[in-house]
Amino acid sequence: MYNLLKGKRGIIFGALDESSIAWKTAERVHEEGGVFVLTNAPASIRLGNINALAEQTNSQVIAADATSVTDLENLVDQAVEILGGKIDFVLHSIGMSVNVRKGNHYTNQNYEFTEKGWNVSAVSFHKVMQVLYKKDAMNEWGSIVALSYMAAQRVFPDYNDMADNKAFLESIARSFGYFFGRDKKVRVNTISQSPTATRAGTGVKGFDGFIAFAEKMSPLGNATADDCANYALTLFSDLTKKVTLQNLLHDGGFSNMGVSQEVMEMFE
Ligand SMILES: NC(=O)c1ccc[n+]([C@@H]2O[C@H](COP(=O)([O-])OP(=O)(O)OC[C@H]3O[C@@H](n4cnc5c(N)ncnc54)[C@H](O)[C@@H]3O)[C@@H](O)[C@H]2O)c1
What we know:
It contains 11 helices and 7 strands. The protein is of the alpha/beta class. It has a single domain, classed as NAD(P)-binding Rossmann-like Domain (Rossmann fold), CATH 3.40.50.720. Strands 3-2-1-4-5-6-7 form a 7-stranded parallel β-sheet, with helices on both faces.
């Protein structure tokens, strides 16, 4: 290990179980000397096993529904107190679509579900940043990262309304990132991650097909949750101080492929 995050304090959203990208990131941040509080929605804390991760990483869990500004204010106040100072890094690893969960086709959405989905998956990122910004709770040269997916730019039919939520999320990263950069010297980026076998990932219809397709298309193969954790670390570290307002493609090369020989062979 390199002690890349020694002395840094953070908040990690979204560790549900061992497969979660946030879980892997918390483990790696801990190994690199960073300290943090873990947070998730109350129902997810009951459903998953975040307390085991907290024990393993010597951290505390604070429940917060990321759509509730009151919960987020309480979370940030408590995090600063528990960790003993302002925050250096934040991971927003949250996504959920009720239309996906209920199996509603993209052309047949229930708009109450649509609103709930964009609130949880995108607007929550704005809320997290607005609370941190107003409370002046981030240290200079801090780093805020959220997770996105390529369906924000390109059509993946079964990704459903999550595609729109991710486009919204990426836009918020740029728009808020401008003010956070200018006023507080804090950087804001999204990582556009390969399909990954997690609770949220496998909930998407046709997941097995598109993870296998992406694997065959990508010259380096799909990026795993562990790979994603490592990439997030670099963005939290002081080695990437001037990277901001970016949607960073972490996908084994998938996004720049037209077609691969492996995929061509399936049609010849
Ligand atoms: N798995 C993939 O294929 C993939 C690919 C690209 C991007 N992503 C993104 O990565 C992020 C993490 O997802 P994951 O794949 O690790 O799955 P996951 O299911 O482990 O994590 C999703 C998390 O969102 C949390 N969440 C849902 N509603 C919430 C709320 N109201 N308040 C607070 N937290 C809430 C869940 O409790 C869960 O911990 C998501 O943004 C997801 O869209 C995933």
